[in-house]
Structure formats: C-alpha cells, structure tokens
Design goal:
The chain is α/β, with parallel strands linked by helices. It folds into two domains: 88 residues, 2-Layer Sandwich (Alpha-Beta Plaits), CATH 3.30.70; 152 residues, Oxidized Rhodanese, domain 1 (3-Layer(aba) Sandwich), CATH 3.40.250. It is built from eight helices and 15 strands.
Length: 284
C-alpha cells in the first residue's frame, strides 16, 4: 500500500446518504478494506438507515471510494461535498456501525421519503428573507456561536438529540397562537436537516424546507457580496472552520474545553484553562 505524499494537495469528501442496508456490518467491512487499500483516512458511519462520513486522501483514491459507495443499493445519488487541504486532516481511518448515521433518537422518521423540500443555495436568500418564514439553525450551540445566517433561531442545544424537545416546545407555543409557520432549516452539510425536517413533518408541519447541501454548499456557491451568512462555519476535522469559498476560517480548537475560538479574539475556556493549543475533536 502506497501512502499519499503528505506535502501535496489532498481531497476531502463529506458525504451522506439515507438508504436501506440489510447488513451494515458487511458493508462496513468492505469499505474498511477499500479505504485501507486507497490510503484514505477519516470516519465513515454505517447504519441500517444509510451512510455518513468525512474522508480524505488523494484525488484518485477519493474518486474510487465514492464510486464504490455509489454502487451500494440506494446510494447512486449520494450527496458529496469536496474540499482540499495541504496536509492530511485525519490521523487514522475509522469505520463504525451505529444505530443511526446521525443520532436524533426520535424513532423511525424515514428521512429518505419524508424529509422537507430541498432549496438550492441560489434560492435560499429569498426564502429566509421572507418575514413569515421561521429560520432554524439545527446545529449545536458551539457551532452556532461562531457563525450562522441572519434571522436564524438558535436552539441552544448541546447535542443533536436535544433538538426534538426544543422543537416540541416551540411547536406548542405556535399551536397556542393558532399558527403553523413555514419553516426553513439548515445545518453544516445537510444530513441533520434530512432528519430534523422529517421530524418536523411528523409533528404535522407541511411547509418545511432545508438548504440543499447545507452551509458548505452555500459557502461554496454564494458570492460573498450576496451572502447572508455571518461568521465561520464549524467543520468536524482539523480545519476547525471554513468561510466563503470553503477557505480556512479564523477559528481554532481550544485544547481545554474542546470548543472553537477566534484566533484574533478573546477566549474564555469553559474548562478554566488558557485555551488555544492543538485542535481537539467535537461530536455532533
């Protein structure tokens, strides 16, 4: 096995697909071997509901892995977002089998068929500028703290599985007011919105929309002059955060509390340390 030259530009692929896997353990075993052969590092999560992950390697290696995943049943149209890095952003390759590819803990929501309506980045600005639309950031509190869209509600959740309780409380208030508003939701790459919009629709809301490809696709496609995004977008690798054009952001990870902080601003470490240091790992 030949390792890629760590001084050259590497390709990063963020991917997910909701598909029915009868034997996710078998799929995981095959993909683990394929990643090893291709010298790819990162994380892939398999479950009976599909696949999710972020991986990095040579351009040819990533192309081969994506082709192998798209050959799996139900994955032909899998969403993939690409970026580049001068050095390998992951220390090793992890392929895991879990109950969910992104943990919401709200039962079988069938995101493959019951998710909200996709909205292209080119149409997103007009949707969230509508005062009658409720805009919801589905990410965790430390992600929202470094960047979000104008007018977006921050659920203040520490974990994605806290989102259902927050939404149910909001829905109770809206129901008491006799309204079921149009809802626009967004997340980093789109996967959390597939599940959260399916949850919202299961709660009886029908006008539910989410940003196709997530914030990453928006930042890649939208010219900065036309953008309604403010700040950086947190990512779950050693880049820590990105901005328009998916260029590196101005945040690093605090070695003390594991939260991002701006390199040109003050940081109050939640763990009581000075902050700074090597990048840590956060989980969704």
């Amino acid at each position: 096995m030949t390792l890629p030259d760590q001084t050259t530009d590497l390709t990063i692929a963020a991917l997910y697909c909701f598909a029915a896997f009868d034997a996710p353990e078998d799929v995981a075993e095959r993909l683990r071997a394929r990643c090893d052969d291709l010298a790819i590092k990162g994380t892939l999560i398999l479950a009976s509901e599909g696949i999710n992950g972020t991986v990095a390697g040579s351009a040819a290696g990533i192309d081969a892995l994506i082709a192998a995943i798209r050959a799996l049943p139900g994955c032909a149209d899998m969403d993939v977002k690409y970026a580049h890095a001068p050095t390998m952003p992951f220390g090793r390759m992890k392929v895991k089998v879990k109950a969910e590819i992104v943990t919401l803990g709200a039962g079988d929501l069938d995101p493959a068929r019951r998710a909200g309506f996709h909205v292209e980045p080119s149409e997103w600005n007009a949707l969230i500028a509508d005062p009658d639309v409720v805009v919801i950031d589905t990410r965790n509190d430390y992600e929202v703290a470094i960047g979000s869209f104008e007018r977006a509600l921050d659920p203040g959740t520490r974990r994605f599985r806290d989102f259902p309780a927050w939404f149910d409380a909001q829905a109770e208030q809206w129901t008491a007011q006799g309204r079921r508003p149009k809802i626009a939701m967004f997340c980093t790459g789109g996967i959390r919105c597939e599940k959260s919009t399916a949850l919202v629709k299961a709660r009886g809301f029908e006008q539910v929309y989410h940003l196709k490809g997530g914030i990453l696709r928006y930042l890649e496609d939208m010219p900065p002059a036309d953008s309604l995004w403010r700040g950086d977008c947190f990512v779950f690798d050693e880049r820590v955060a990105v901005t328009h054009g998916l260029a590196p952001g101005r945040h690093r990870m605090c070695a003390g509390c594991g939260h991002p902080y701006a390199v040109d601003g003050p940081h109050q470490c939640a763990a009581g340390q000075d902050g700074g240091g090597a990048p840590g790992t956060a989980t969704s």
